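Weekly structure sync - notes
Attendees: PM, LS, DV (DV joined late)
Agenda: review two folding runs queued last week.

Item 1: First target. Sequence and structure tokens pasted below for the record.
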Amino acid sequence: MKLTTMTQVTVDGVMQGNGGASEEDRKNGFERGGWARGKGDDETRAFITQTVQRAEAFLFGRRTYEFFADAWKMSTHPIGVAFNEAPKYVASTTLTAPRWKNTTALRGDLAAAISELKAKPGGELQVHGSGILTRWLLENDLVDEMILLVFPVIVGQGARLFPETGPDLALDLVESRVDSKGVTTQVYRPAGRPRYVTA
């Protein structure tokens, strides 16, 4: 399976609080949640739905898993149906009693467990949100494709997808478009380390 991440971010890279409705959105005093609500047009919403529907399975960090379970497990929306029906894997050493059907907690050697999932035949293993997990996957060369939905807003605070310091990574742009409300969709493939100018 191809491992694909999909993340909604602001122009300044913040991924926290896009919906603005959960405790996670308020973590560390963050008070600028809801910045993604009502921002994308019908085409962007359709793209998100179609992307989720093509997943063979989903991989979550623990906090995102719990948030999504609360938000989607009773949903009849096509996104909720896709999340509910597909296998779900959670990178967690503490999750002992998953409360969302078709869930498996990944313990032990996480890189080996994810590599094993990727080796299975099929479509996509998708990661939504899960910033800490997404950064770890990129650092360990496990991401095949990264989708960024960039919303035209600068919020000035909150958890960012990429920290101020961290590993570097070159990206090849596969696809890019902008919707009628200014939301850009950028699809990238990791391409090794960037080249820098030498003195």
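Item 2: Second target, run right after the first with the same settings.
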Amino acid sequence: MKKLIIFLSFTVVFWACEDFLDVNESLDNDERTTPNYMLPAVLGNMAYAHYTHGETTSYITQYVTTEYGTHAVKDRWDYRGILRQGAWRRHYFDVAGNAHKMIQFAKDEGSQNYIGVGKIMMAYSFLTATDMFGDMPILDAFTGIYNPTYDAQDVVYAEIERYLDDGIEALNQASSADRPMTSSEDHIYHGNVNKWLSFAHAMRARLKLHTANFQGGYQEVLDLLDQARAHWAEPYFAYVTDADSDWDRNMWGPSRPSPQWDFAEIRNMLHASIHTSFFMHAMTLSGEHDPRLYELCTPGANGNYLSVPASTGRGALDIDDFAILYNGYWTKDDSPIVFITDEELYFIESEAAFYLNDMQRAYQALINGITRNFQRLGIGSELNAYLNSEAVPGSATELKISDIMMQKYIALYLQPEVWVDMRRYRYSNHAYPELEYPENALDLYEGRWIKRMPYDPQTEYIYNPHEIARLGARGDLWVVTPFWWIENSTLAN
């Protein structure tokens, strides 16, 4: 089923029939289809986009660093010479663009279930994209305007909420008159409207957390979590075990999939990467190795778990003394992609309750998040020892924000949302003790942390140069320039 992605991504379909050259048909127009044929491919592309964001940000959030220490992009944050930024295209073409088309087809036939799911997928794609790039076209998107205006990020956030509102309204109107949506079409929730509604509320809780510190929205975050939990199930995209095609493998896996329909630059580099000192600090909060470490990676030949500061490389150290980053829970060929995990909801709850001074709720949510993560990794028998260790505060009165954010960091291993968290806190040691600036980051940044990704040079610099110039997005310091919710954040201290 995922092989359909290639066609939808490039919006070209070839038909073999005797009327192919009929001069009365326009060969320039997109062929029509029905939404049930589009949904599996859009979901597959959404999972691939999620990987793309995580693969990019995991080097910034210091889960991993390259073994060389000199990689231009991953170690030095030097984007001046990149040819493309795939995450931009995956949003506008592969996910949101195709979801938009699916919605149009669903509207034509009156299938409210497909309209609702399509709107929620568009909201998810725009949220993850704007949190990576900042300002971006949304009001002009998919209108046919050749040089769309880049909307300010607060406008983008407002439109994302409108997508969620529209999606929720459509799902509430779904009925048996809609085109059926089963597991053959919906690889996430198998057509369960209530679960999609819960996903929409969870996504809004995530969005609201990003701005709650300067917009006073923590209670709303907790209310949205309560709504999300009404029918909550993880939005879980499964891959095929022992797959014989790259289309059916998780891009994080050891086979390093390189589907023929994409550029090789997005293949994972875990084979040439090692854990950082900051990650290993998180893995030793208890004074010894966190048992989750052994489930997130596999031991190297010497059975050791060495680490190095971000961007320094392994130097003369033996690669066999570092963990192998493949075949952990998230890095197998058949590992799932989970768009929002159970653990993330618990840690959102913990953080929001903490700032509302509801310390007992914050503490219990912290414990729930840690517990769920141990259960996920299949090591529940080791939970009590960890909860009673130095890694976890003994009571609600001892709780610090760093306890919450560091446990979230561990539980969301390789997940792109962690970069949002670090930027909300402006990489502060108040939230992330022992986080250090990468030694080999470009000197021209003068110690400033990376805040955003550059726009795609192969599209935006060529086809929308006036907007790029207006924003100053071609400047060397663009990637260290904060955007809306970073500039306004009050969480640095």
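Discussion on item 2: The two ends are 49 Å apart (CA to CA).
Action: LS to circulate a short write-up before next sync.
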